[in-house]
Amino acid sequence: MSGRHLWALMILSLRDPAQAARWLIGLGLPMGARWTGLVLVAILAVLLIGLTANLLPAQDLSVLGRAMQAPLPGLAIQAGTILLIAALTAWVGRMFGGQGSFADALLLMVWLEFLTLPLTLVQLLLLLIAPVAVLVVALVTLVLFIRIFLVFAATLHGFGNLWAVAGAALATLFGVSLLLGAIMTALGIEPLLGTV
Questions:
Q1: Which of 87, 96, 103, 156 has the most Cβ atoms closer than 10 angstroms to its Cβ?
Q2: So where are the chain's domains?
Q3: pTM listed for this prediction
């Protein structure tokens, strides 16, 4: 895929996420290419997180925050998060009668992560020149992520009701957050940002 096609797919993902999802799934990429994509986006995300963390005061980073900017732990956390989201997207969707596979869910989540990287880079640049604007870009990034995720998940499983998908996603997020929060608390791990 050329740079021009990549750019066109990024624009399509913002304008019509359902069509972009169908196009990606229709590529029929081998599983090896999907795993490679996972590793590449995780590496890029860790690099950007590391650059951003270096611009923040050290006392603003918790144990998890410092782990995220370290190469191997950061890569494991980033890739593991994408894998978890892909697995839950496939599993929960199939629980409600969807037909999407884990392989296609992984492809869509890798692409979604890739879409957020340019906006993360914009946040990094704004942190240097206009820190107040970072919050606005972060909010826009979050809204875009949620919208595209919901459309991707609905398209993956053939669902037509985005509100139902949003409800299932919110319930899953709440349940997983409680579980992970309990595990992290038991292990003595702090949130990403906070006092040390």
A1: 156
A2: 8-187
A3: 0.84
